[in-house]
Design brief:
The complex is a heterodimer. Chain A is an all-alpha fold. Chain A has helices at 8-43, 54-59, 76-107, 110-125, 128-147, 155-179, 183-191, 196-225, 228-233, 251-258, 267-301, and strands spanning 63-64, 72-73. Chain A starts with 7 loop residues before the first helix and ends with a helix. Chain B is mostly helical. The chains are: A mainly alpha, B mainly alpha. Chains A and B meet through helix 1, helix 3, helix 4, helix 5 and helix 6 of A and helix 1, helix 3, helix 4, helix 5 and helix 6 of B.
Chain lengths: 302, 306
């Protein structure tokens, strides 16, 4: 019979594998810091060079970093582009996404729910470059024909595409949030004679609010960070837009469009990495806020 | 005793007060509005898929898949792009799967719930939310420049691997959570160590779920454009049509997604059907892999018996 306590030689493989698992476990932390570090490492050379001012970078609307005489590197117009497309997409995606979530979770027969969820999953699986292609080839002429705008690559186009891309995220995460409300809430509401709609409106929406808000924030973060679709569908004019039929350029599209042209190590190149850090900071705020809301919900429901 | 009256088909058993009637109306309106909204947001999907296939129809054939592009990418097939995507996804899979699965094992089987595992979880969530273009910048800074891999399949697929890591961690964690705790306890009671339990009991039982997650990751990775655009994909690379071993790991390659982007935005005078055909092949690849994952999941759910 083997002794109960294994000696070190027996335990060595176990210790080794445990070390490897631990290492993989912290890989996510290492990668998050790695991303910040390596993107910042490329951008760093710009900061001490004297002709960079943070206030100019954040609050100026002139973006012309490739210019030989007096390059301008204000990102406010790009931020306005990102904001305008994102706001329009959210104005469409939030009602449709949350409505879909409520329908799936509360009004739908189980069999139909499974079918609809599969279709939603398919909608979420379409690659963003295909959405961009659709914006370019299908929506562009459609928008010109319907609105009479001179060009169909604009905020409206990009906003509609991003809405279609965000609806599945908001719908499925929102459904999870509604599912997480204990059934006893529903039973109590129904026992008091509430109709399903009253139940949703008066009980479930308030109870699931943090989770639903988190779903919206994650959809928002995804929309802000989306690249290919907005690159192909929103046109390429850097400006603060005044109507939904204006072409804009977003932060993400700027990086994607100019990274290929900027020579490695030039100020322009470093500047694009700095825009990447800026973008990362914005999306991180949304993600952390969403996580905070979900954690708050878990704590309160315990 | 009062005689029981047979209810006439027109009369309701309980009289409907106006308040109840209003509520019933309200509920009907809500149901129709919400369901209609859902259908309305799904309809474009079918319209678009149908339109893509319809426009692409004249070009779709077996030869389109296995030939190389000709005439400055205006004619011929898309074999180099198809093969490139295969290589990129395969290498990303090889890099991300072991790390992702072990990370999930750590989170679910080893880590004590507490501050540290909370931070790891937060890092995974944050990693999942990093925009794809920032991943591209990271790949360019870390793999292409710092690690000296240059623009290559290796650099691009490592970038994709970093990107898909949170997907694998999340799906594997779900799969591990679905293994009942009693399985582990039984194994521990037999004297098995933590790793023996994980290897012989938990992982085999979670395997189907893990596999579903991996397939899902393949489908997402295959469609990614921005991360490979700057780390390893090129607009055009000449290889023999149908040659399976045309790329080396340090070569640059074409990719389906980048090919679609290039042909639809940067190549002049392309025949109308060509970009649609590329889009259809890309969508079919992604959705085909996705359908496999869904089918597997439905099958497994029906078979599960604990």
């Amino acid at each position: 019979m083997k002794p109960l306590r294994r000696n070190l030689f027996d335990r060595l493989p176990e210790l080794l594998i445990e070390g490897v698992i631990r290492l993989c476990g912290i890989s996510a932390i290492l990668l998050v810091f790695g991303i910040f570090f390596f993107v910042f490492r490329e951008a760093y050379g710009l900061l001490p060079s004297g002709d960079f001012h943070l206030s100019h970078f954040l609050f100026d609307t002139h973006w012309n970093p490739a210019s030989q005489s007096g390059p301008a590197y204000g990102t406010l117009a790009l931020l306005a582009g990102t904001a305008s497309v994102t706001i329009l997409s959210m104005a469409i995606a939030i009602p449709f996404g949350l409505g879909s979530a409520i329908y799936l979770s509360e009004f739908c027969a189980p069999y139909r729910r499974e079918t609809l969820k599969v279709v939603i999953e398919i909608l979420a699986a379409i690659p963003s470059v295909v959405w961009g292609f659709i914006g370019l080839m299908v929506m562009n002429p459609l928008i010109i024909a319907v609105t009479g705008a001179p060009i169909g690559l604009n905020i409206l186009n990009g906003g509609l595409l991003l809405a279609l891309m965000s609806i599945p995220i908001i719908a499925s995460l929102g459904e999870d949030a509604l599912k997480a409300v204990p059934d006893s809430f529903r039973e109590a509401g129904l026992a008091l004679g509430a109709s399903r709609w009253q139940l949703v409106y008066r009980v479930l929406l308030p109870a699931a609010r943090p989770g639903l808000l988190a779903a919206v924030l994650l959809g928002l973060g995804r929309a802000v960070g989306e690249t290919m679709a907005v690159l192909m569908a929103t046109g390429h004019s850097v400006r603060v837009p005044s109507s939904v039929l204006d072409s804009v350029r977003t932060l993400t599209a700027t990086i994607a469009a100019e990274l290929g042209e900027a020579s490695v190590g030039s100020h322009h190149y470093q500047l694009l990495f700095l825009v990447g850090i800026y973008l990362l900071a914005i999306t991180s705020i949304f993600n952390l806020a969403a996580d905070y809301l979900v954690r708050g919900r878990r704590r309160s429901s315990r | 005793m009062r005689p029981v009256m047979a209810p006439s088909p027109t009369a309701r058993r309980f009289a409907e007060t106006p308040a109840i009637a209003r509520r019933r109306r309200q509920e009907r309106v809500a149901r129709r509005l919400l369901g209609g909204g859902l259908i309305l947001s799904l309809l474009p999907l079918f319209a678009i898929l149908f339109y893509l296939v319809w426009q692409a129809a004249p070009l779709l054939s077996w030869r389109f898949l296995v030939e190389s592009p000709r005439d400055g990418m205006r004619a011929g097939g898309l074999w180099p792009a198809l093969l490139g995507t295969l290589y990129l996804v395969g290498a990303a899979l090889a890099a991300a799967t072991p790390v992702g699965i072990l990370a999930a094992v750590y989170l679910n089987e080893y880590a004590q719930p507490g501050r540290f595992s909370r931070i790891v979880g937060l890092a995974v969530i944050n990693l999942a939310g990093v925009p794809s273009i920032v991943h591209a910048l990271f790949g360019l800074g870390a793999f292409v420049a710092f690690a000296g891999l240059g623009r290559s399949i290796l650099a691009a697929s490592l970038t994709l691997a970093v990107m898909s890591l949170p997907v694998i961690i999340a799906s594997t964690t779900e799969a591990l959570k679905s293994v009942p705790q009693s399985f582990r306890e039984a194994s521990w009671n037999l004297g098995a160590t933590r790793w023996q339990t994980t290897w012989h009991i938990v992982l085999p039982n979670a395997m189907p779920g893990i596999f579903t997650g991996i397939i899902l990751m393949v489908s997402r990775t295959a469609g990614e454009t921005a991360p490979v655009l700057f780390t390893g994909a090129v607009f055009y690379k000449s290889i023999a049509g149908g040659d399976l071993f045309a790329y080396g790991l340090l070569d640059q390659c074409m990719a389906l997604s980048v090919h679609l982007f290039t042909v639809s935005t940067q190549v002049p005078n392309v025949p109308d059907a060509l970009p649609y055909a590329i889009a259809v092949v890309l969508v079919a690849t992604v959705l085909g892999v996705n359908a496999l994952s869904i089918a597997l999941r439905v099958y497994l759910r029906s078979r599960k018996n604990w």
